[in-house]
Amino acid sequence: MRILVVEDDTNLNRQIKDALTDAGYAVDVAFDGEEGHYLGDTEPYDAVVLDIGLPQMDGLSVLEQWRRDGKTMPVLLLTARDRWSDKVQGIDAGADDYVAKPFHMEELLARLRALVRRAAGHASNEITAGPVRLDVRSGKVTVEGQAIKLTSHELRLLSYLMHHKGKVISRTELTEHLYDQDFDRDSNTIEVFVGRLRKKLPDEVIQTVRGLGYQIVGD
């Protein structure tokens, strides 16, 4: 999953990026509203963490412009605790949730997981496909109840496919959603990780749809 963080406080921006990276997300960052708007307008993100008080272009204006342009990715607003009006305006502008500063990083991660999960149509933190079960909170994957070890890249790939099970996902879409903009995107990388995953999962869990991409079949 690929996340955009738009926060002008350098230290907070870094802390959020580090926490999201440790949680297995690919993360891009911006430090002002104009840069954030541009990235959200031109790159595909699974969710955005957006501060309201940004230089160049404030967060509410960024959000309103995205929604006018038809951008539907979930947006988690960062608001000042004593500004309840910001929360109301943010929700009205199209935000999906908010976290008030100061906040615990665990809360931000939990709310972000929920946004990504709901956007993909899942009500539970556990996603299953046949004998494969993914706990999105812990990143633990089991096959018929037995835990399997995955590298961070393998887990990232499996998680995206599991979130979108039943849909055919192209290699281009996988590359765009699994790696940040600074990653050296080799077209063969996805095939390598799919091959490694298939060795650890039951046969036919990950199917190749010739000429289109990959698919995890539903239950």
Automatic annotation (TrEMBL):
This is Response regulator transcription factor. It comes from Paradevosia shaoguanensis. Pfam families: Response_reg (PF00072), Trans_reg_C (PF00486). Keywords: DNA-binding, Phosphoprotein, Transcription, Transcription regulation, Two-component regulatory system. GO terms for cellular component: cytosol; protein-DNA complex. Residues 124-218 form the OmpR/PhoB-type domain. CDD domains: REC_OmpR_EcPhoP-like, trans_reg_C. InterPro entries: CheY-like_superfamily, OmpR/PhoB-type_DNA-bd, Sig_transdc_resp-reg_receiver, WalR-like, WH-like_DNA-bd_sf. Gene3D superfamilies: 3.40.50.2300, 6.10.250.690, Winged helix-like DNA-binding domain superfamily/Winged helix DNA-binding domain (1.10.10.10). Coiled coil: none annotated. GO terms for molecular function: phosphorelay response regulator activity; transcription cis-regulatory region binding. PANTHER family: REGULATOR OF RPOS, RESPONSE REGULATOR PROTEIN CARR. Residues 124-218 bind DNA. GO terms for biological process: regulation of DNA-templated transcription. Residues 2-116 form the Response regulatory domain. The modification 4-aspartylphosphate is found at D51.
